[in-house]
């Protein structure tokens, strides 16, 4: 009886462990929420709109919207190959530049854009550039996935232009992406040769990314961080390590106070926003994903998120949070 009980516990623990190598497979038909939390049925085997993807590769339709403390609510539009749009704006090359990229079926007005914009501007005088890539993001999910590399490369080219016009250094740039947006900023960092100071993936999207070579990876920036909050077997997040340091709050599968996958998924940007104002979200390093799941991590500590451009760290980290802000 004791042997049977131990076996059952071992099996249950194994089933609860987030995936270390990103080899989870999804069902063909799943539901994925848009930026407003409305669920949409997705056929992961649907063919992408190749014409739209090719058009994005040829002529990026990204919008770059600048917010500063001088224009917190009304963005100024910055345009690639239009130096005047930058020099006549409130962009200050002496301040850090934060880029925020949304996920599928979203735009400049949907989270995490407003919540992160407000968190950063309340903390420091920075340039916030919201990437609106709705033309591709508003297409079918497989098309949006196929379009991510082109969108990311376009962002990288824009940041290179921004650098050439203003002298804003890459080591003061922090690229942040949520869900599909995490892979977008990864591709942008790759376009720039991994020179940006930080790249943060907020619960990087999982469906169609497990074996995708265009996914976020640790060489996309000087320091790359992943925050995983919905990495269960049917979760929306990739659930596996993608960066130099990867955080798995509450084990990385489900979050306190959440009853849905959407709530778990969104908790990534909510935790990150809280980490900008506070320094209390600190993880312990884990030797492996089994320790992450079993909550037995006792290694060195590293703070989740925050706005430190010189942040460094590596490995897997587990922390436990509360159910409501500031967590």
From TrEMBL:
Gene3D superfamilies: alpha/beta hydrolase. Belongs to the AB hydrolase superfamily. Lipase family. Keywords: Secreted, Signal. GO terms for cellular component: extracellular space. PANTHER family: LIPASE (PTHR11610), LIPASE DOMAIN-CONTAINING PROTEIN-RELATED (PTHR11610:SF173). It comes from the Eukaryota. Residues 1-16 form the signal peptide. It holds the Pfam family Lipase. This is Pancreatic triacylglycerol lipase-like. GO terms for biological process: lipid catabolic process. InterPro entries: AB_hydrolase_fold (IPR029058), Lipase (IPR013818), Lipase_N (IPR033906), TAG_lipase (IPR000734). GO terms for molecular function: lipase activity. It is found in: Secreted.
